[in-house]
Amino acid sequence: TLAVLALALPGLAWAQGKIAVVNLQEAILQTDLAQKRLAEVRNQEDYKADKAEFDKLKKEFDDLVQGFQKDAAVMSQEQQVAARQKLASKQSDLEHVTGKLQQAEQAAGQALLQELSPRVQEVLRELITTEGIGLLLPRASVIHADPGYSITAKVTDKLNQQP
Questions:
Q1: What are the contacts of 156-159 at 24+ separation with CB within 8 A?
Q2: pLDDT value for 6
């Protein structure tokens, strides 16, 4: 009886439906609409100005790091302290501008997530039915899942197919 039970359990689990995982944020942000909106954000004058500032600060920071690494051995203690302070100040400026860029992109992403939420729920219901999914988990809650368990790309494709 134990052998029969062992052979029957996988069949019972299959009868319950498949298990799948989904990363909804990734599914939404990979859609054509999301890519279009992100491009619109990146084409705004404020974003372009912040991006130009970021590029300038990044180059200055990299040059400072390179110069410090090259000259540190011959610098006095005071010069090293001053150079480190200048690096820290430049890094702080760089982090501030990076934060502004990320905030602009995240705001657009959050608005898009809210806008597409009803459509995502509809797509998920359809996929659950057509794929025979008995358990759907958010990808962030799963320690490990082989790529074959993910329906994220299918959600993105279905969202792209909708008008």
A1: 156/26, 156/27, 156/28, 156/30, 156/31, 158/123, 158/126, 158/127, 159/27, 159/28, 159/31, 159/33, 159/116, 159/119, 159/120, 159/123
A2: 43
